[in-house]
């Protein structure tokens, strides 16, 4: 880790939760951060906090990454500032909770655009530059939902499965370039997810919930060790292992039971999340 101080990272979804903690912990290692998100007031507060605590630079970029124009704007902003990122943390994303046919298509499309298309687009743009420089790290934030089918989170879980398999494939493709891709797959994390969803934590969620800073530490450790992928937390690791050995039909039923909302919460909920 001796070469990190003074380098730059791009962190998406940086205004809260995992993204804000990625910014804080990278800054604690002496890394300057381009912090991208839609909520400028939160980015500005994070900038003041980090620069006061660590003396590193935070460059806030207000952008909607659910559009290709927004993704290109972020890339161009970094390039125009003369920044050559050593790291890219693709953390931006959200989940749409509800029965598939009850979810408004506009929200479904926005989720898929952010969780898949933005991640792939930014990876293409920044990794090409990293390869030219001969060094780089990419962290794709997925979810343990990517290891299983999840009724009421059907498209979200499928999107995170894409993130997992795409990231692991790129890790292999990029061998010998000096650039690596690592996939971080958290489970339930203490961010804004449940509050925004209006969902009371279930027993499963209470048992499995991890604090955001701990998840970030696990992710950064795996990133700098250039690991293929990582699942933080013993509970989550066991859950992923069971998904691989149990019959798939049973796994789907278990997932439906653990995600079942309260009786009063049958309506569709939209939840920003990085996990």
Strand order of the largest sheet: 3-2-1-4-6-7-8
Residues in helix, %: 40-55%
Please name the CATH architecture: 3-Layer(aba) Sandwich
Determine the N-to-C terminus distance: 26 Å
Shape: globular
Structural class by sheet pairing and helices: alpha/beta
Question: Can you tell me the CATH topology?
Answer: Rossmann fold
- What is the level 1 CATH name? Alpha Beta
Q: What number of structural domains do the residues give?
A: 1
- Write down the secondary-structure element order: EHEHEHEEHEHEHHHEHHE
How large is the radius of gyration? Answer: 18 Å
CATH superfamily: NAD(P)-binding Rossmann-like Domain
Number of helices: 10
Strand content: 15-25%
Task: Return residue spans where pLDDT drops below 50 for at least 5 consecutive residues.
Answer: 193-199, 265-275
Structural notes for this entry:
43% of the residues are buried. The protein is built from 10 helices and 9 strands. The longest helix is centred in the middle third of the chain and has 29 residues, at 105-133. The chain has 275 residues and is of the alpha/beta class.
Task: Record keyword descriptors for this entry.
275 residues, alpha/beta, Rossmann fold, seven-stranded parallel β-sheet, two-stranded antiparallel ribbon, 10 helices, 9 strands, disordered C terminus
């Amino acid at each position: 880790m001796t070469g990190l101080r003074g380098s730059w990272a791009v962190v998406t979804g940086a205004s809260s939760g995992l993204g804000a903690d990625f910014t804080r912990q990278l800054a604690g290692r002496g890394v300057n951060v381009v912090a991208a998100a839609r909520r400028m007031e939160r980015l500005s507060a994070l900038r003041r906090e980090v620069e006061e605590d660590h003396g590193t630079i935070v460059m806030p970029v207000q952008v909607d990454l659910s559009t290709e124009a927004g993704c290109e704007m972020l890339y161009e902003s970094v390039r125009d500032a003369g920044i050559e990122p050593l790291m890219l943390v693709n953390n931006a994303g959200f989940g749409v909770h509800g029965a598939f046919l009850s979810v408004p298509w506009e929200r479904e499309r926005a989720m898929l655009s952010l969780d898949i298309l933005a991640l792939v687009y930014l990876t293409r743009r920044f990794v090409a530059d990293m390869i030219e420089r001969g060094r780089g790290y990419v962290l794709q934030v997925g979810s343990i939902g990517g290891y299983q089918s999840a009724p009421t989170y059907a498209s979200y879980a499928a999107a995170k499965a894409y993130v997992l398999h795409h990231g692991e494939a790129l890790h292999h493709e990029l061998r010998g370039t000096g650039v690596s891709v690592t996939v971080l797959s958290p489970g339930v994390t203490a961010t804004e997810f449940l509050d925004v969803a209006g969902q009371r934590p279930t027993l499963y969620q209470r048992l499995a919930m991890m604090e955001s800073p701990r998840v970030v530490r696990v992710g950064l450790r795996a990133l700098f060790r250039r690991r293929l992928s990582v699942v933080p937390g013993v509970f989550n690791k066991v859950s992923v292992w069971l998904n691989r050995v149990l019959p798939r039909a049973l796994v789907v039923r278990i997932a439906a039971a653990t995600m079942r909302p309260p009786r009063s919460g049958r309506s569709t909920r939209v939840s920003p999340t990085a996990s």
